[in-house]
Amino acid sequence: MKLATLSLLFGSAAAFAPSKVSQSTTALHETQGDLKELAAKLNPAIKFFDPLGLSDANFWGKSKEETIGFIREAEVKHGRIAMFAFVGYLANANGITFPWSMQLDGTPFPQGLSPPEAWDAISDSGKLQIFLFVGFLEFWREIASDTHYMKGGKIGYFPAFDSKYIPGGALDLYDPFGFNKNRSEEAKAAGLVKEINNGRLAMLGIFGFLSAAKIDGSVPSLTGIIPHYDGEFMAPFTTSIFPHV
């Protein structure tokens, strides 16, 4: 969680730009049979792999199709965050920061710290602003889409900000440069497969960094490369916001 949020400050995942998928293409992958078809494209060697039986589950009393829509959205979203985190970790580890101050009071970005230590150096008020911003993005995703992803909506889609509600408006985080407007449906579908695979690889990669930093020698190939971290990855604030719990 910490490095995923940290990446919003220190990283850029432009190389992993999401691919826009049409409504009809997305709706095809809402049953277990279609998941198996997609899995064969994602990894022809392993194909469909669901040891926990999540594709047979009914989350919150919803249908299997709605549950699969939720799971697919979650995977794409976590994959994107992991890509941000992976690139952000590499950027920070190499001393790459934004040219301006880290905080409004003029506090500069720390130098010589590992990525998780750099996160610890941010004030709790600054961290809270990051979490509130991410929370707003989650809220907007849920309420502003024409069709919800659990009801056949586009998996991974992020609705543009409406100028009636958001100052400035017309900001499209889903396709900010308009690269996907003239792409064929086949190209979009192929791009989604690439994005999912990149996201899965990034999730493995960032957890490799976390493991290597916390447990010395747990990732032999990273021994001596990733510095040890004595903090708590799952404690994003210096002082708990629930001190009596």
What does this entry look like structurally?
The chain is mainly α and 245 residues long. The protein is built from 7 helices and no strands. The two termini are 20 Å apart. The N terminus is likely disordered.
Query: How helical, in percent, are the residues?
Result: 40-55%
Mean pLDDT level: 81
The gyration radius over C-alpha positions equals 20 Å
Low-confidence stretches: 1-29
Q: What structural class is derived from the secondary structure elements?
A: mainly alpha
Proportion of residues in β-strands: under 5%
Number of strands: 0
Overall geometry comes to globular
Q: Count of helical segments?
A: 7
What gap, in angstroms, lies between the N and C termini?
20 Å
Q: Strand count, sense and closure of the main sheet?
A: none
The helix/strand series, from N terminus to C terminus, equals HHHHHHH
Task: Tag the structure with descriptive keywords.
globular; 0% strand; 46% helix; 7 helices; mainly alpha
Q: Short description, anyone?
A:
This protein has helices at 2-10, 23-27, 32-42, 64-93, 115-120, 124-144, 185-214. The chain has 245 residues and is mostly helical. Residues 1-29 have low confidence and may be disordered.
SSE layout and pairing:
Elements: H1 2-10, H2 23-27, H3 32-42, H4 64-93, H5 115-120, H6 124-144, H7 185-214
Helix pairs in contact: 1-4, 4-7
